[in-house]
Structures are given as structure tokens and as C-alpha cells.
Write a structure and sequence with these properties.
The chain has 339 residues and is an alpha+beta fold. The chain has 15 helices and nine strands.
Length: 339
């Protein structure tokens, strides 16, 4: 683990370079109005927290540090801590099979059901390409194999493109992967039909070679084709023992309150029973053990009528998706694996 004030200064410079200025101004204004504190004092406190709690500038607001005690703040796993944790658990030279979606599908093909092909497959018009192009589902998902957080994704209609036009479109947009749009289970389709609502299950290999589960979260779309929280969608906690959604859905936007009822479908979120739960746990355990060089992975899972399947694995799984839905810091859980 990286330690010391020098590294925190490096982190702080990085946070300023990557900062979403509009979001930061909005969050500072909201916190100032809520607490009565000046905006300058909130900025100063956020910077101090980088050094005291190894958090990012925006973490201060997302974790609502402006209304928490020092003890409560110390419980949260922030950006700096998670960067160091992921480095310790998932070596840089082992991450490619997770970071690159094409490599991921090759290495974890036994858990991937939906038809997919690369742009090279389309050029060659090989068997993989034919499976995608002749699949009865009209919608295709185009991706950048190295894209993250829902960026670099486009959903298109096959009937609007000839095979040659599809390849040309992908080349122009920088896509190198085409996938058949996955039909989700009716439980999730009824909850929110605008996009694929995926499940995130986080596994951790322990010192005895076994698999521990760090959490499960359901991402829920709101009039969006992607389900990431960064795109304005919600996430809710899921009970690992039962597969039942165990609380309201939350946003990664401090100006929005948790919701118990989906704003579009009107369905109640807490208490929702996710399908195929025993199969989900079996699949993620097997996947976690398949390539144990990566010890801590966030698995994105599609729940279909036929069962669960993997969409991707994340070596740098999201601290927000993990902690915000349960509205508490979980750093202590990770510290046990660093001893």
C-alpha cells in the first residue's frame, strides 16, 4: 500500500485534473445550503480529507462527510485507498483479462452466453460474425473493448445497417466489439425496460484459497440504455443470502434522495426477489477461482430468462456502487484482507 504525505499530494493534483467542475460547484452549493457552512470551508475540509482519510475531492460530498464525525468519515473507502487496494489485489500485469472486454470473453467464455464478435470477425465474416448478424434480435450493442463506466457504448438497430455499413460505423466511432442485445428476465424488464439492469457481485479470494462475497448491488436504469450510476441511474443493495433487494435505490448525486418506488414503472424496489440467485452465487464463485491472479473482482451479471451470465469483470470495481446503496463506509471489510 502506498503511504505518506508525498503520495497524497500526487493524488490531490490528480483529483484536481480529473474534477468535474460543474458537479463540484453544484455539490458545494448544496452542502453549503444544507449545513450553513461557507463554500470555502467545505473546500478546505474536502482537501484536508484527502490527507486524513485518503479520499478524493468529490468523495467528500458523495460520502456526505460534511455531516459526519471524524470516526464516521474514517469508515469510508475513498478513491486513494481503493486505488491502493486494487493494486495490492489485482496486479497490473494480470488485469488485461478484465480490462479488455475481448480478452475477458475469451478467458471467461464458459460464463458468457450472448452472441458477440469483434470488428475483425466482421471483416472476416467468420462464424462469430454470422451468429451476431443473423441473430433474431434486432438490437446490437457496440462497444469500445477498453471502455469503462458505461462510456463508449451505443445501441443500434441492425436493420438500419448493411454488414459493410456496420463495419464502417464501428471504425468511425472507435468500436471494436459488437454484441447482441440481451433480453433480461421479466422481473427486471417490468422494473425498468429502458435498458439492461445488471447485477454487480463483488468477490474476494481469501488467504485459504476460498471465495468471500463482499456485496451485491442491483443497478437500475431510468430512461437510459445503460445502467451506470454515473449516467444518472440508481443502485440498490441486495441480500447475499436470499437475492432479495434489501433497501431503497440511491443515486450518486447528493441532491437526490433514496427512492423506494421506481419513478417510471411505479414498482416497489425493496423486497424485489432477483431470479436465479443460487446460480448467481455458483457462477461468480467459479469465475473468481478460474483466474486467481486477480483476487478482488466486481462481476457484472445479466439475469436472463434462462439464467445468469457474465457481462464483464472489473479489477477496479466501484467504491460508490459498493458503499452508497448501504449508506455506510465499508473500509474495515477490506482492511481484513490486507493484514
Amino acid at each position: 500500500m502506498l503511504k505518506g504525505t508525498k503520495n497524497k499530494w500526487i493524488y490531490l493534483a490528480y483529483y484536481f485534473r480529473q474534477l468535474d467542475q460543474d458537479k463540484m460547484r453544484r455539490f458545494v452549493r448544496f452542502a453549503s445550503e444544507k449545513t450553513g457552512r461557507s463554500r470555502w470551508s467545505l473546500w478546505a475540509d474536502a482537501i484536508r480529507s484527502v490527507f486524513r482519510y485518503n479520499t478524493g475531492l468529490i468523495d467528500y460530498f458523495l460520502f456526505r462527510f460534511y455531516e459526519k464525525t471524524p470516526e464516521e468519515r474514517a469508515a469510508w473507502a475513498g478513491t486513494g485507498f481503493m486505488y491502493e487496494y486494487h493494486l495490492a489485489m489485482n496486479p497490473l500485469d494480470a488485469r488485461d483479462i478484465l480490462a479488455n472486454k475481448i480478452r475477458f470473453y475469451e478467458k471467461y467464455d464458459q460464463f458468457v452466453v450472448h452472441a458477440h464478435c469483434t470488428i475483425d470477425d466482421l471483416h472476416a465474416n467468420n462464424e462469430q460474425a454470422v451468429k451476431v448478424l443473423r441473430h433474431p434480435t434486432d438490437k446490437l450493442v457496440l462497444k469500445d473493448a477498453l471502455g469503462q463506466c458505461g462510456w463508449g457504448i451505443e445501441v443500434i438497430s441492425k436493420k438500419e445497417f448493411s454488414p459493410e455499413q456496420l463495419v464502417s460505423h464501428m471504425e468511425q466511432k472507435g468500436y471494436d466489439l459488437a454484441e447482441v442485445f440481451i433480453d433480461q428476465h421479466e422481473v427486471l424488464q417490468e422494473l425498468s425496460p429502458s435498458g439492461l439492469n445488471t447485477l454487480r457481485v463483488i468477490t474476494q479470494l481469501n488467504d485459504h484459497g476460498g471465495v468471500d462475497y463482499l456485496g451485491a448491488r442491483l443497478r437500475i436504469t431510468i430512461n437510459s440504455q445503460v445502467d451506470n450510476m454515473a449516467s444518472g441511474n440508481m443502485a440498490a443493495p441486495v441480500d447475499l443470502n436470499t437475492g432479495v433487494v434489501s433497501g431503497p435505490a440511491v443515486f450518486s448525486d447528493i441532491t437526490k434522495e433514496p427512492v423506494h418506488v421506481h419513478p417510471i414503472s411505479g414498482l416497489t424496489i425493496p423486497g424485489l426477489q432477483l431470479p436465479h440467485w443460487p446460480a448467481v452465487l455458483r457462477m461468480t464463485k467459479e469465475a473468481a477461482l478460474l483466474h486467481p491472479e486477480n483476487r478482488s473482482v466486481g462481476w457484472d451479471i445479466a439475469l436472463t430468462p434462462a439464467g445468469p451470465e457474465l457481462i464483464e469483470g472489473n479489477h477496479n470495481w466501484c467504491k460508490l456502487l459498493w458503499q452508497l446503496p448501504v449508506q455506510t463506509g465499508l473500509k474495515d471489510v477490506l482492511l481484513t484482507y490486507l493484514k
